[in-house]
Each structure stands twice: as structure tokens, then as C-alpha cells.
Amino acid sequence: MFHLRKRLPTFLRGSFLPLALALAAGCQDAGAPTAASIPSSGGPSHLTSVIAPDVDPSPDASGCGAPARVTIGAIAFNGTLKSNEAVTLLSHVYDASGCELLPPGGFAWTVSNTQVLAIEGSTSASTLDVRGKLVGTATVTLKYSGLSASVYITVVHGDPKTITITPATAQLGFGASATLSATVTDQVGNKITDRTINWYTSDGNSVTVTPGLNGSTAQVTVKNPPASTNPVTIKADLTAGVLPLGTATVSIVKPECYCPPGVSCTCFPENNTVQPTP
Q: Are the CB atoms for 16 and 75 separated by under 8 Å?
């Protein structure tokens, strides 16, 4: 027994109509996405959505015939998810005249790559909840009564969550330098490379920091001589004073015998002293 899908409330119509992610014609299951739902050339890139028509279902369930076409839809969704963002996909089943049915079961949802798009909930219900994970593209396929529809969903990185500086520690002598790298990731570990990273030093009189291109790397240099030999903290962020924040520590190694630049001296290692050379 099939039931009619109810008409959407007024507030979900107009500009908030379901976006039809794909319109797979009611052909018999061929085991592959149709040309209407997935581009036939150029490979998976981005799904172009169209607004589903706001058509009232037939007022009488007995007026609907056998299932002839299935589609996949969603509310206010354009086919792209951020990492850790979720969307509910909706099944639509129609007869040959366009009368929409609401079958009680018999659905089968699959996702081509669950590392990119995680399934949440049942894969046999009339709806499917999916959540973006790793950056990439996955195909979602709906099968019902020998009919099928497929869509591409693209996952992009989420908001920045962590900045990691490597190496996290460095030991440098007077006048020595080292290169540090900063990596920005979202909540699930996707790398974010389109942000500019800012660098700071807690003691500019002892250790300087010079950012590289886009701030993905920075050169730290111990002055000769430094104002202090205390450890210096190097920081990296995207916006001053706003998380995420990455940190590293530079330990300054004082030489056993040190003569200031331009001064001639003699070192006495036995008692760790230096005397000017006459």
C-alpha cells in the first residue's frame, strides 16, 4: 500500500524548496549513475542543483500507479558539505504520471566512499543522514523497486581547528637559525592551505622570526648575542589573539667560550672563563 507524500508547508516552499540533487529517470536499475545525475565527462567535481517543482500530489492515493521514477532531494543544499557538516537526503518516488508515493520501506542507500562521506542512521529508511569527513567526492546511490538515482556530494575542509608547529622544540646556539613549519587542520584532520599564518616571538631581543610565503614556514634566528638565554616561545595563528594557536619552544645554547663579536679573547675551559686578549 503506497501513501502520498504530503505537500510541503508554505515556509519550505519558494526559495526554500527542496533542491533536487539529481533527476534520475525511472529506468530499470543499470547499476551505475545516470547521465542526468552525474556528469558523463570531466569526472566528479560539483553537483549542479535545480529547484524541484512545487507540485501538489494527487488528492487520492488510489490515483497513483506503480513506482516509475525515483529522485534524491534535500532542503536548501547545493551539493557541497564542509567537513563535519551533515545533511539529510530525501527519497522521492513517483508513478509514470508524476504522482508522488511514500512507500513504507524497501529503500537501499549506498555511499561509494565512507571515508569522505560518513553514513549516519539506517540505509533502508526513506531518508539518509550523511556527514562530511575527509576532503573529496563521494557518490550516493538510492535504489528502490528496481529503480535507482545517484548524486555526487563534494566535501571541502571545515573551519580551522588546530595549528601544529614542527619541530615543536629547537636548540640553537648564538647566531644559529632553524626553519619551522606550521600546518593548519580542521576538526577531522583535513589540511587547510588557503590561509595566511602569522608568526610571533615572545622575546624579539633574543630570537627573531621571519615568515616565509603565506606563513606556512618561518625562520627563527638566535641573536649574537641574545639579550637572554631563557627559552623563547614561538607562536603561530591566523588572527591575532584568536584560536587556534600553535606554539614551539627555542632553547638557546650558550657556548662554553664566548667572545662578543669584534672582541679578541682567550677561553679557559677548565673554569669556564674568558679573558680579553692583550
A: yes
CATH number at residue 176: 2.60.40.1080
Residue 172 and residue 213 share a domain: yes
Residues 207 and 141 in one domain: no
How many domains does the chain contain in total?
2
Same domain, 116 and 56: yes
Same domain, 226 and 149: no
pTM: 0.71
CA atoms within 13 A on the CB side of 158: 17
What Rg, from alpha-carbon coordinates, does the chain have? 31
Residue 243 burial by CB count (10 A; 0-12/13-18/19+): exposed, middle or buried? exposed
Q: What is the dihedral of CA 102, 106, 107, 108, to 10 degrees?
A: 180
**Residue 190: in which H helix or E strand, if any?**
none
pLDDT digits (tens, 9 = 90+) for 42-96: 333 333 333 233 334 444 445 789 999 999 999 999 999 999 999 999 999 999 9
- 130 and 206 share a domain? no
Residue 212 CB contacts under 8 Å (≥ 6 apart), including other chains: 179, 218, 219
pLDDT the model gives residue 270? 63
Backbone angles phi, psi at 253, to 5 degrees: -100, 115
Residue 100 grid cell: 508522488
CB 142 within 8 A of CB 91: yes
Same structural domain for residues 180 and 142?
A: no
Considering the domain architecture, whether residues 123 and 139 belong to the same structural domain is answered as yes
Same domain, 137 and 192: no
Q: Which of 28, 27, 9 is nearest to 18 (CA)?
A: 9
